Protein 1
Amino acid sequence: MTTEPTTPSVTPERATLLLSKGSYAMMLGVQCERKKEDLLEEKEEYRSIVTDLRKNLSRYQKAVEFADSQIKSISYGLSSHRKTELRKVVPTDEHRKLLKRMEFIGMWHGDSVSIGAEGKRPFGNSNMHGDIASILGWELPNDDLSDAQKERADVLLEELPFALNSILSSLIK
């Protein structure tokens, strides 16, 4: 029966020191100049560190997986709340201006037709944010949208189908 050599316990301070050397600190030429005993001792210290890291890795991996699953679950709940909020969108002049310029297409599928906008070019060009800014007459700092303008454009794009539903339902009463 063979037994694994015992690896010496390494203090957290020593482990931090050993791991802070960086990937190029242990070049072969430098190692050849060191005493054999020092190299063997340091090799065992690194083995001990790796063993401890592997133990912690499996422990933390389960925690990471759990936290990831919770994030997905919470995100699903938030998206459900967002859909409820979007159903309550009251069309604004911004929505009306954008819908007026939106290029709708129809696609035949057997006995039915679906109406939608081309996903990449709903306003005719591939720069949706720029199109929205142009249609709504936004001033652009440095010839580009600010982060706040991009966020507003994204919100408007998300709200458009719900604004259209509201407009259509108000016509058919």
Protein 2
Amino acid sequence: MAKRRTAKRRYSPAASAKVQRAMSEKKRGTLHAGRSGKKVQSRKQAVAIGLSQARREGARVPKKNG
């Protein structure tokens, strides 16, 4: 029987927690975007903010494309 390879996690558990926190803040309406401070409306933007915060803290997150 051949050994089964397990894929390495791309995002660390810490990164997942940051995204989860950003999403819950968005739902509550307390998540604000960068310099402008406007309220975040889109789900994609909330995820991007969570990943950005995780990167800043040194969590394992793949690099941005482009």
